[in-house]
Amino acid sequence: MFYIVGLGLGGVKDITVRGLEIVRNAERVYLESYTSILPEDKLKLETFYEKPLIEADREMVEQSADEILDSAHEKDVVLLVVGDPFGATTHADILLRARDLNINTKVVHNASILNAIGCCGLQLYHFGETVSIPFWTDIWRPSSFLNKINQNKAIGLHTLCLLDIQVKEPTWESITKKKKEYQPSRFMEVKEACSQLLQIINKGEFEEVNYVSRECLCVGAARVGWPDQKIVVATLAEMADVDLGPPLHSMVIVGKLHPIEEQFLKQFFINKT
Amino acid sequence: MFYIVGLGLGGVKDITVRGLEIVRNAERVYLESYTSILPEDKLKLETFYEKPLIEADREMVEQSADEILDSAHEKDVVLLVVGDPFGATTHADILLRARDLNINTKVVHNASILNAIGCCGLQLYHFGETVSIPFWTDIWRPSSFLNKINQNKAIGLHTLCLLDIQVKEPTWESITKKKKEYQPSRFMEVKEACSQLLQIINKGEFEEVNYVSRECLCVGAARVGWPDQKIVVATLAEMADVDLGPPLHSMVIVGKLHPIEEQFLKQFFINKT
């Protein structure tokens, strides 16, 4: 059997009881190490699971799926992923590959930022399409995510913005070489995302109507589900100066507020006056 | 401390390890019994938790929050909810009430249908606003959810449709009386939701452009995360005749399909020819 088990928001005890049983009984356990987990967590997880974990980076999951799936016909093999197993297309890929090889598969669900963001008090039913905000480079500065935020805002919906995570990304120079060299890991902060958004707005070149202004209300959420979770509500312009601390960060561009949402958000306002 | 702990998709072992520890150490544990849990599960949960559970119906959570929160200043009180704690506004209400009473609160997240629906292979980032489809009565036949589905479909997004759950609903006759009488529990099936949608379409009275036809692709998902989970992909017209078995059911009206989504969905097609 091939299992994909969700780790939830990333604390060692965020795995479900069923997930833990599966991990402890498995022959081999892989830990997906590129979508969001922090490197220092591997040892904590191994200690708690009483099980060695094999790190599976992006290249391995995408290009060596058969190595992970090896012997899963007879034995139990587990791939651990942060959040819920269906947060990334890669996991659909490996499940399809397992099916092609006639390997039975099971998925153990868990919380992901897509539902846990509800902790800020915004109703999950009032969110539109989720967007991803990528790190800009000198020559690549996409702004298409603003169109989706506008599409949501036009009909009063909130937008969850997932902020870029770069773990084990090859350097530009080594991308075509056999021996890859890797950039240091980077996690986009809410203030960086806000700064990029402000630059797009200041430029003022919009394909369609723009509803996102400097005064637009945003929720910055850091380390959701962790003991030091931090949530701040501020305008876009204010948020560009807010330091929310260590990763992971996410952001919501707020749409139309319902009374109960407004009441809940109040506790997080940066300026409570 | 007042905790709201998510039970995930409802199997006893779907609670997280951290959630289980909190439950086992708590002074009192309430089980929210009206948004989706099935009555026969209470005993199973009590046996696994080694803890008695106090049933909290809608009236209790909405009107007697202070009874639940009693003594939570000094002792640990837990409210268990199916899915993730922020799936329903009621839970935001009771957290706000606790804050007003200066009681510390913590939330333990878990999977909910809002992210677990990814198991059908549709990418969670391609979903628009979620809709709820209510049971119709003889005199109340709302169709406004179709507008939202159309709004999503117009820009290529999928729509998760949450189907009505009626647990411990007072009868019309007893609604103003002191002694309430309750209707039997009802859980809307995918085929009933499809039949309501087909009636709206057949009537042909649309406020705006309608993109939902009899041939429109739908995903029916029953008992997501359970051992007997069932997923079927069919047209809306076909789905109105599909029996997906016991509750809970959810449905997705499919938007624009990406190649990997299409490939994943194929395994669930009702007509594989």
End-to-end Cα distance of chain A, whole Å, is 57 Å
Q: Rounded to an integer, what's the Rg of chain A over CA atoms?
A: 20 Å
Structural class of chain A: alpha/beta
* Proper CATH architecture of the largest domain in chain A: 2-Layer Sandwich
Quaternary structure classification: homodimer
Largest sheet of chain A: 5 strands, parallel
Mean pLDDT score of chain A: 91
Strand and helix layout:
The structure is a homodimer of 273-residue chains.
Chain A lengths: L1 E5 L10 H9 L2 E5 L8 H9 L4 E3 L1 H6 L1 H5 L7 E5 L7 H12 L4 E4 L4 H4 L14 E3 L11 H10 L4 E5 L1 E2 L19 E2 L2 H14 L13 E6 L7 E6 H4 L9 E5 L5 H7 L8
Short description:
2 copies of one chain form a homodimer. The first copy, chain A, is α/β, with parallel strands linked by helices and 273 residues long. Chain A contains 10 helices and 12 strands.
